[in-house]
Protein 1
Amino acid sequence: MDFHRPARQHPLGVVILAIQFLIKGVQSFWPAIVGVSLTQLDWMTLLLIPFGILLGVAWAILYYLRFTYWVEEGSIIVERGVIQRERLQVPFQKIQAINLFQGPVQQVFGLTGIQVDTAGSSGSEFKIVAMRREAAESLRLMLAEQGAAPDGTRDPGKEAMTVEAGPVDSSHAYRGRTMVDLDIARLVKVGLTQNHLRNGLLGLAVISSLVGGLEHQIESWLSGLPAPITALIAAATVLLIVPGFILMLLTGVGVSLVTTVLRYFGFHSEIGRQGVFMESGLLRRNTFQIPFDKIQLTDWRSNALQRALGFETLRIRQAQAGDAASGVGVRLAIPAMEPEHRATMEEVLYPDLDQGVVMTGRPVGRLRWLLWFAALLPGMAPFSFWSPWAAWTFMALWLPFTGWTTLKRYRSFHLTVYRDAVVLQKGWFWRQRVILKMSQLQGVEWKRHLLLERRGVGHLTFHTASGAKRFSYLDKQTGFRIRDWALNQLHVNP
Amino acid sequence: MEVTVAANPELDLSGIPRLEDIEFQTVSAKYRQLRLTTWAGFQVVLAAAWLTPLIFIKVTGDEDLSLFQAWWWPMGLQFLMGSCWFLEEWKGFPRRGYAVRERDITYRTGWLFRTTTTVPFGMIQHSELVQGPVSRWLKIKHLRLFTAGGSGNLRIAGLDEEQAETLRAILETRTRKV
């Protein structure tokens, strides 16, 4: 397929663009739309609806006509913009991720979208919303092949290219050995082990915002009842605590299952000679190819239930656009990673993990007391609304509980240094294990305040192209040794 | 059965270059004047904001001082914060400095809150010399170093013009070499 001539998207892209513009328009002007719909509607107001649709369609046609893309001398060039024309030139080497996606509208028309992300400024990324599948695949293959050369950031591991990954099709450097394949049973397992408490609270927040006037209606209903019955109902609400908690948990489980199915339906991932391939999603079907050398860090997360079932979630972080503090970045997750999947990934990305530990670090004991103090503060809250004896009873139980949990948490902090990798581990119930390569570090920072300095304690921060990772309350000697080692390895393992 | 033995030699960590052994270059003394002037200006503006109502009460002869009672809190807070800021400027400035090694640059700053950041030359995407109107008058420049993702960005402020140009030249040479 020839991409060297300026080309437009597929003509049906006009429909997709029009729908996208209309959705964006509704999202931008929803307060005005709600306000107008609450007033008495006359035919003049109703005329605004077809006018808005026509405007959206006209804008989509203009956008479609003025959007062209082509490939020229190691770069992909995109010209776009209705009022203000923009010419975007993205060198192949700067491309971090190429993602194919199929939203519901693309699925109806049998088209595919392609999204290109870079590590440059937040504006230097683009989407082509409508392409034929074969054209999108060809473009992705070409961009991936041309961009395989090392760029301004260091290559994390050429050794990754030499991994034996089973039968590999040379045209599919990202396909080979199957990693995680989610069938319905596994999908349910992933859904059932999510954070239901958080999802339940989120679900309840959405429900309560949707039925905002419910409280007022209950109050007006109660005001019409005789006083003894109102008092009886008020006393009976205590009995609703347990069913209410169960309802929240059920809501949480429901939200977890729905979001898991939406996100991970038909999840399939493979590992090849040059990177990782994955596709997933129910309504919006995404396909990702991540070259090994673009992976900045891996973040392994699990809760106690997931560990009991023998799996964890891998989050892959690539270089992020713009300011690291903005949190904008390419983040991909592979759920249900079992020990053998983890071993395969680590073997490919961090071969030095097998070569022995160089040094380790643990936080100083002060962190344990700080964690305990922070955990005790919520325990003070009952003093403001319970009777003193009830609050003190609660505190008597809260104190040993938080003491035990913070001890477990404190013991979970580990910093392990290998030849070219650093592993930061924390968390007891929710465990997190971040692995980063020293050869990809953008900087190392030692930070402390005056009091910590006097005690010879500080925080060690590793800056990567995908954000900073900090290990706190490390003693000075260990911190300095790890910093010196990291800076040294950064230069000897370019 | 043949047993594979993994090579696992002991590593000698004593030869690793130590960052704490290096000597730091201080930044321009004129930058200290600029920072202290900024501090003083800020304090004067804030103090004026607190004192204006006092003068107003004195002039109008209004006996109702109930509102004035609460004035001590922001003034006290300003005094406390201002003192900490002054201490940070006074004691922290001599600590402010940079050090260049063969392959990286380190910048140290702060007294109350101390930070030592090292950025390898190989990771610097581009650098920038910044000079505003006041800096131009004082003949100082600020050097900004940008890394991928922005997390490791560094700003070395208050360099003498000559010092800044030399540092920029060193960076250019070293970045190319790495």
Protein 2
Amino acid sequence: MSSEDLQSNMFKGMFHYGEDKLKELIRKFNERKIAFIQKRETIDLVKEQIKSGEWNLLNKYIRNKKLQLLVQMGLTLRRLEEKKDYIALQDLRSKINYKFGEKALHISQFVQNKILTEFIASYLSTQRNMEDLIKNIEDLLNNLERQAIFIKATDSTTKIFENLNIKLTANEPESFIIFAKESAITNAEKVLQNLQEIKDFNYKIETKQEKGQLLILLFKIKSFD
Amino acid sequence: MVESISLQDLSFEEKEFLLKELGFASDGIYVLDSTREMVIDKYINEPVKIDNMLILPGSTIIIDNNPLSIASYLQEHPDVF
């Protein structure tokens, strides 16, 4: 084959399938042998998350299909953040918000910030029953506004502590999460200090700090009365 | 697992031909169904643009190329990719 033929064939292959070739592709499509995609990149991005060790861990404790999807999207948001692909990151956030609403977006961001994984890693040591684990983890995701506080740098620590106190007293959750990033960490540390000073506090406190994040986990101490 | 064909290798006319053969159409920007209504990506509730469509097996599902739609599709069709 001459270089001209080769070039011509490459051109045909890449840009001009031709009617017969297209009909052949349609036949294969109807036989479910092919799929028409855009860039392989987006599919690979999703598959990379589904194949990850973290998804395998999280997936054990989440049965609800919508929550599973939001968790996968959280992992995808994190990957896009790592790749500094901020346009795709914002686009995905908007799509989650548009389709499922703000609460759902918070679930994905909860996973994006690795809070769910850290929480589960600690929670596994306090809870052994699989059904209880699944129920409590799904309850947590469905009730983040009742079982978690995300501290901002501009928040008053007195207000945060009051808010926390109301949530713990009103709902008596099995577990509670306090999360702060970067400049909000100082506020979270003050809240932590206040919590540690409470006498006979009903909750065991665990802290995890890494990469400009502070996570404070509270686990209710079980009473055997 | 099915073979993937990139629509980015097809000209606009070839994409329109493909849509027509599969019972769809286009207004030049969006994908239309046989009644000339915009095809809505059921996973994100948004119309699908011809330049960003995926045509996937399983009763010919046309969706937008984004992680939420793809992950939703994969939940229903785990063995396709």
